[in-house]
Write a sequence for this structure.
């Protein structure tokens, strides 16, 4: 009996740690918003309507992901950066603006937003709902060092299932 219980618990843990079970970005966002309920989330529709000089965008993905594509004007932030390091390096940029964090789907960016807002409650910090995958799936413009691009880094094969245009998945800049 202990083996059955242990096996079931292990299966749940492995499933939870291995990425999304369903290819529904809305469900993934709802899960993230529930787990990070202390983080403000902003949709790309609301962001699109905002005045550009009122916010600054931070990309919280690995450098390789950023190089394939990112939001134009986004500042790359190491996902493992501490909040203190972030404030030392980017606090002057985020001061008096909305700091919008994004990653692939919102997990790493919500974690960063939570870390930053916990040590700097005076900053206006948000997570971009559905991350860059949401922007890519909506066919909104992305950029790379080579200019405008339709390609997206999938993070890995499992999370990449959330990308609707699989022909635009790439692990290398194009």
């Amino acid at each position: 009996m202990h083996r059955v219980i242990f096996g079931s618990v292990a299966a749940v843990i492995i499933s939870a740690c291995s990425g999304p079970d369903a290819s529904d970005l809305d469900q993934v966002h709802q899960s993230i918003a529930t787990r990070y309920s202390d983080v403000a989330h902003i949709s790309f529709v609301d962001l699109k309507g905002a005045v550009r000089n009122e916010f600054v965008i931070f990309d919280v993905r690995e450098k390789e992901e950023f190089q394939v594509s990112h939001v134009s004007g986004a500042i790359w932030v190491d996902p493992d950066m501490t909040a203190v390091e972030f404030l030392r390096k980017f606090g002057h940029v985020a001061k008096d603006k909305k700091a919008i964090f994004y990653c692939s789907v919102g997990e790493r960016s919500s974690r960063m937003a939570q870390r930053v807002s916990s040590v700097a409650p005076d900053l206006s910090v948000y997570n971009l709902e559905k991350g860059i995958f949401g922007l890519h799936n909506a066919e909104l413009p992305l950029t790379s060092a080579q200019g405008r691009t339709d390609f997206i880094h999938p993070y890995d094969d499992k999370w990449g299932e959330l990308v609707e245009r699989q022909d635009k998945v790439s692990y290398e800049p194009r």
